[in-house]
Batch of 4 targets.
Target 1
Amino acid sequence: EIVLTQSPGTLSLSLGERATLSCRASQSVGSSYLAWYQQRPGQAPRLLIYGASIRATGIPDRFSGSGSGTDFTLTISRLEPEDFAVYYCQQYDTSRDTFGQGTKLEI
Amino acid sequence: EVQLLESGGSVIQPGGSLRLTCVASGFTFNSYAMSWVRLTPGKGLEWVSSISANGGYTNYADSVRGRFTISRDNSKNTQFLQMSSLRAEDTAVYYCAKRVTYSSGYFDYWGQGTLVTVSS
């Protein structure tokens, strides 16, 4: 099983600042089969990024993903009020998906 | 518009059984794999189970294998999760999620979730 470790656990930033979230895999994620999701309280997860760096439909360009192998990053260039949420990475390279434990982005 | 509507969650005693249902609309249901993913306060998101588009392939997380069974009825655009021998650690919000291909891939659409509470 590929274990995903996200850091930091909580990130405290202000509106307009840049957020950098990390996701590290215990072994290489083939073909960059890594996705990022945003989850606001009481809502369903929302797909942000797939293939490590491809923005999903309708996702603002302030969200960007990068990385390969075992190290991946989600960057939010200028934080808006609606961006404060929990973010999860997910690998779908193997037949058993795994998620990171999440990073909470708070004001 | 893609919609996934879960139902069936409730409060259930340890050792009990429950069946969750997810009704899909807005896409060609029999062309896509489907999954269940749960959210627990302490562990975050956890993949539970997946089923291929034609129902011929299923797989499960180790934590639920042998206790949960995933299935689908393509004639009714519906998938199910039969849960038995429930434990306190199964308490979670259960989401129905659509994959992007016939058999695998990331999740492009999610339902709003149904709450399962296992407690005596």
Target 2
Amino acid sequence: AQSVTQPDIHITVSEGASLELRCNYSYGATPYLFWYVQSPGQGLQLLLKYFSGDTLVQGIKGFEAEFKRSQSSFNLRKPSVHWSDAAEYFCAVGELWGSARQLTFGSGTQLTVLP
Amino acid sequence: DAEITQSPRHKITETGRQVTLACHQTWNHNNMFWYRQDLGHGLRLIHYSYGVQDTNKGEVSDGYSVSRSNTEDLPLTLESAASSQTSVYFCASSEGTGPRLGMNTEAFFGQGTRLTVV
């Protein structure tokens, strides 16, 4: 079975600073990778996804992520954080598990943005 | 606009009671999922369905059941609620059929149901 690790439980950055959220996965085949964001009291919204091709993918709200097979990583980045980016971020991998096809999520990273 | 809605948004129930959480989507998606979200665990899959009359157990299915009688709805039932089932529950849906479904298509999430078992 695969796993997804988000090593940072909580990150604090100042508004305007750059951001990188880490995600490592364990999966034998080429993974399908996702980043979701969850604002307080809300469901999850897809930021971006990687299936194949260009390893640098662009998402909504100015986010991007880079797939690095050699490091089994799919880190999320943003060059300049806005106060509205404060939320919880989840990395997920699409899994083929027997006959089951579903997402496995990391435990999340809570982002706090200081004014 | 198409959407996925959960009800109720908040519920408090007593240990041992049967509870049903509703999930309704108007995307006409084949695939529907129930997750629970707990601190330090992220989202864990409870049950899922790839179409009408199809249901499958996920990672943490004990004490839960689902039924899929139509495309739009996947209600989640807690047969006898336990304090360990206090959690936030999310329903999700995605399109697609075939062996790769659910892996390369976006899942849309409801806003969640906060369940407290006392």
Target 3
Amino acid sequence: DSGVTQTPKHLITATGQRVTLRCSPRSGDLSVYWYQQSLDQGLQFLIQYYNGEERAKGNILERFSAQQFPDLHSELNLSSLELGDSALYFCASSPDRDSNTEAFFGQGTRLTVV
Amino acid sequence: GNSVTQMEGPVTLSEEAFLTINCTYTATGYPSLFWYVQYPGEGLQLLLKATKADDKGSNKGFEATYRKETTSFHLEKGSVQVSDSAVYFCALPMTGRRALTFGSGTRLQVQP
């Protein structure tokens, strides 16, 4: 158990809809990262928050957004969903602002868009 | 920017065989290097890491040495088990150290 909790584990929704994925980082970790894992794109970095502030953006679509709340949990919002958004979405956390140390991953949310 | 390239899979081995999964990197400076493992249905977990050149990371019988001369961090294990069947990812921090960037992953299947 990494200490990172993601909910829900599975999500099935229709095209055009909006969903919210939730992540609770390890106790004490200030950084939260979101990654998308798909068969054709591999593991893609989406966005990082550190202590409530956005720190870095990766390959995140404009239809996607995220935030980190004062209690450090984070949510990833995906809107106007398309079939190609079907993937595993991972949250990871680490204590540091920089990524030169280990990141701890949750078990992921599997999103299926039909 | 920083990037990693790892060998394509899948790799299929018999139990007790020797394993090598190649990983080469491009980086500014000398960032930490990581190997993560993903077992079926689970998230990624750190397998081992090395923080500077010539460091050897090791865990659960796996080893990898940070070689700056060849910009490599190959993963090795002397005798694989069926329980080692998983996907292995090489990783390093992105330029600016804002997040880890991962290789494409190598699927290992170990047959009894």
Target 4
Amino acid sequence: EAQVTQNPRYLITVTGKKLTVTCSQNMNHEYMSWYRQDPGLGLRQIYYSMNVEVTDKGDVPEGYKVSRKEKRNFPLILESPSPNQTSLYFCASSFWTGGTGELFFGEGSRLTVL
Amino acid sequence: TQLLEQSPQFLSIQEGENLTVYCNSSSVFSSLQWYRQEPGEGPVLLVTVVTGGEVKKLKRLTFQFGDARKDSSLHITAAQPGDTGLYLCAGTDSWGKLQFGAGTQVVVTP
């Protein structure tokens, strides 16, 4: 089954404790992206990757890191989480067709930073 | 600042009624997508429109892309409880970047 898998789905952590949210897709998509979703603000892009070893900042990259060492994986790293990073996070992937094609989303990871 | 403005933010209707959701921008988009998101899940693509003036129908859902490719609408005929969800529009600009609107929460009660 074609899917994007995120882990963990739910996480409560404390300020400053490094965490990683993993994302894996099995559709051989070149393009992968991380979004955060907050009430009234919609989906805002954190980082994206056009292919292996190619990553770039989205609209709200502060406080986050990513890496793309393999085509299927695109982990999101919070080196020192703060309460303003409490949010619902989505990983998404697609074929790159000169513009973003259909985005396939994971089920989301709800993060609470105390 | 949202590049794409969706209205209304929230819509509650009875089963069988019709509804329209709007997505507006001052920018031109090369294409526009509509996604639906249900609680606890990620958004799922409903449709992509690419030509100004284009109309696409998906069962009871009708999508329209404005002639100037700056706006779009989603019309649902005879809404059903299964149509409940957060409807998101997303536009691709000339650089290939996708921008999302904040969404319209639709609740259809039996």
